[in-house]
């Protein structure tokens, strides 16, 4: 009998396991789609809530450090504990969001990208390709200081340097009650954000747009614009020209109009608040949350891949009761293929890269051929056969087997 040689790996992939329904998907993806073809070499970190609690969350920190060491990670969705979870899992404390912890250690930027499928058409008719949103996840209104002005008086903003020299600016002479808000950001954080964006654009070979409101915010937003422009000119321009891609800055109003008229196929970098709002709009207009991937990119070019959705708790509770589920694994499959491809690229492992692309193709072909989970069947243009979680995974496995056989 002919036994297929499994694809070897030379460097470990950092594997971050997670919680609930996505943990179930995780195991199925490995068993049915990856392990039959790849001699999978991972450094495994269990970020499931039980293990995080057991290790006082040290496991999360270790997994992020391993990502800095090896350069590529794949992460399953994890529970961010709230009061109800503290009770449900009898936690020692309300541990912080693993994504927040990992992002802080990697100093990274999150890029959210929809998976494009024929038959599931975006709300915006002109969009032919995915639009990736990059959100600067530090500072601004998320770390602001706010004050309710009770009555007439002067509001000032003061800054004292380390020698104690003060500068004071009048914000407003209030004649009655009102509100005040002060925002800040750091050059270091904005620079990291810009580096991550430039690197990711080069990685994807897609244009990079950055937009803010510099015409109104002449110091604050203008500074973001200047940092991007400075780094582009000094560090990235030549590489962009060589890759045949473009960086440009435009006012956010103009960007919104251009995005709506575009074909897609670019990366849109946004300040913290703009990114928060626009990423939800883009995700919704592209279809389903279950078709959105997310990549955390550090300023030095380390990558962590995951699905943008959560642990799909409602489906997990059904599953635990022994009832049937139809949970969409596509974003989690693409987190794996993204990570395997990147690992292959860094290691010069062409077979691994080719396998990752084949698995993506098998997944898309399965859906385009009319077999899908319930969430997609509702959006699909055409005849759709709704499968349960395992049934869909088996259908992808069959497509993959057929594609591998033609090699
Ligand atoms: P969620 O897990 O994304 O699920 C919200 C709803 O969206 C689901 O109930 C389901 O709708 C639909 N959905 C999401 N992913 C789906 C999929 N793959 N297939 C089919 N339907 C899908 O968000 P959540 O319920 O707000 O959060 C659950 C847990 O996830 C929380 O503990 C939260 O902390 C965590 N979370 C983790 C991450 C992360 O690790 N990156 C991100 C977000 C949330 P129906 O029930 O209507 O079918
Ligand atoms: Mg939001």
Short précis:
The chain is α/β, with parallel strands linked by helices and 407 residues long. Helix content is 45%, strand content 20%.
Roughly how much helix do the residues carry, as a percent range? 40-55%
Order of helices and strands: EHEHHEHHEEEEEEHEHEHEHEEHHHEHEH
Radius of gyration: 23 Å
What is the rounded distance between the termini? 18 Å
Oligomer: single chain
CATH topology of the largest domain: Isopropylmalate Dehydrogenase
Overview of the molecule:
With 407 residues, the protein is α/β, with parallel strands linked by helices. The chain folds into three domains: 1-117 and 292-407, Isopropylmalate Dehydrogenase (3-Layer(aba) Sandwich); 121-138 and 187-286, Protein-Tyrosine Phosphatase, Chain A; 145-182, no CATH class. It has helices spanning 20-34, 49-54, 58-70, 83-88, 98-106, 187-204, 220-243, 252-261, 272-286, 313-320, 330-347, 350-368, 374-377, 389-405; strands spanning 13-17, 42-46, 72-75, 109-114, 131-135, 145-149, 153-160, 166-174, 178-182, 207-212, 247-251, 266-270, 292-297, 303-307, 371-372, 385-386. The strands form four sheets. Strands 2-1-3-14-13-4-5-12-10-11 form a ten-stranded mixed β-sheet, sandwiched between helices. A two-stranded antiparallel sheet has the order 6-9. A two-stranded antiparallel ribbon has the order 7-8. A hairpin with a 5-residue loop joins strand 13 (292-297) and strand 14. The protein starts with 12 loop residues before the first strand and ends with a helix. The relative contact order is 0.16. Bound molecules: NADP nicotinamide-adenine-dinucleotide phosphate (NAP) and magnesium ion. NADP nicotinamide-adenine-dinucleotide phosphate binds at residues 77-80, 99, 289-290, 306, 309-314, 327-328, 375. Magnesium ion binds next to helix 9.
